Amino acid sequence: QLGRTLAHTAQALGFKVAVLEPSSDCPAGQAADSIIVSGYDDQAALAQLAAQCAAVTTEFENVPADSLALLAQQTFVAPAAQCVSVAQDRIAEKKFFVDCAPLSGVMPAPHKTIASQADIDAISDDLLPGILKTVRMGYDGKGQVRVKTRDDVAAAFAAMKGVTCLLEKMLPLAYEVSVLTARGADGESVVYPIAENVHRDGILFTTTVPGPNVSDECALRA
C-alpha cells in the first residue's frame, strides 16, 4: 500500500512509475504506469527496471540489498543498499544505534543475540521479561514472542526453528513515536513533525501527526 501511495504522489508531480513485484495484482502495480512481474533477485528484471528508471527506491526493507546494489550500477538508487542491509538485520541495526549513541544520545533497549542453547543459558536476569525477535523478516507482530523466563525463550527459539534471534528487554513505554528525517542527494536534510503511533495486536493501527502527547510536552518545554 505504501508503494501505491508513492506511485500516486509521483504521478501527481508528473513522473511515470514502473514497479517490480512478484505479484501481478499488487497495490503498487495497480497504480503504476508499467509493472515488471518477477522476483526481486531476477537479474534480467532488474536490468529492465534500471533501463526504464532515472531513479529507483523501495517501499519496504525486505528487498535484497544485493539487488539494490546491482541497480545502483546502472541508475540512481535511494536508500542505498548498505542502508537497507542494516534495516533488514536486527543485530546490525542494534550495533548501528550503539555506534551512533555517542552523538545521538539515544541507546537501544538492552538486548542479546540468541543463536544457541548456550546463549539462552547465559541470559542475564535483567533482560527478562522481554521479546524474542527473529533477526530477519519479522514485522507487524510476526517473528516476535513475549517471554518471561529462560524456559519461555527456549520454547520460542525452538518454535522459530532455531533461526538466529534477538532478545530485547521489555521496557515500560508510555507511547510510541516516529521521528523521520530525510536527506536529499544534494546533502540538504529536513526533519518532519513527530508522529505518535497506536498498535493493535502488534500491527500499526493509527498514526497521528503531530503526536498529541508529544505536542503537549513540546508546548510545556517551550
Structural class: alpha+beta
User: Which stretches are poorly predicted, pLDDT < 50 over at least 5 residues?
Assistant: 218-222
Strand arrangement in the largest pleated sheet: 5-8-6-7
**Share of residues in strands:** 15-25%
Summarize the biggest pleated sheet. Answer: 4 strands, antiparallel
Q: Compute the CA-based radius of gyration.
A: 20 Å
Q: What is the overall shape?
A: globular
Number of strands: 13
Distance between the termini: 37 Å
- What's the order of the H and E elements? HEHEHEHEHHEHEEHEEEEEEH
Helix content: 25-40%
Number of helices: 9
Q: Which whole number gives the mean pLDDT?
A: 91
Please explain how this structure is put together.
With 222 residues, the chain is α+β, with helices and mostly antiparallel strands. It has helices at 2-12, 27-31, 43-52, 65-72, 81-87, 90-104, 117-121, 150-159, 212-221; strands spanning 18-21, 34-37, 55-56, 76-77, 111-114, 130-134, 144-147, 165-169, 176-178, 181-183, 189-191, 195-200, 203-208. It has a 4-stranded antiparallel sheet, sandwiched between helices. A hairpin with a 2-residue loop joins strand 12 and strand 13. Helix 3 (43-52) packs across helix 4 and helix 4 packs antiparallel against helix 5.
How would you sum up this structure in a few lines?
The chain is an alpha+beta fold and 222 residues long. Helix content is 36%, strand content 23%. A 4-stranded antiparallel sheet has the order 5-8-6-7, with helices on both faces. A 3-stranded antiparallel sheet has the order 9-12-13, with helices on one face.
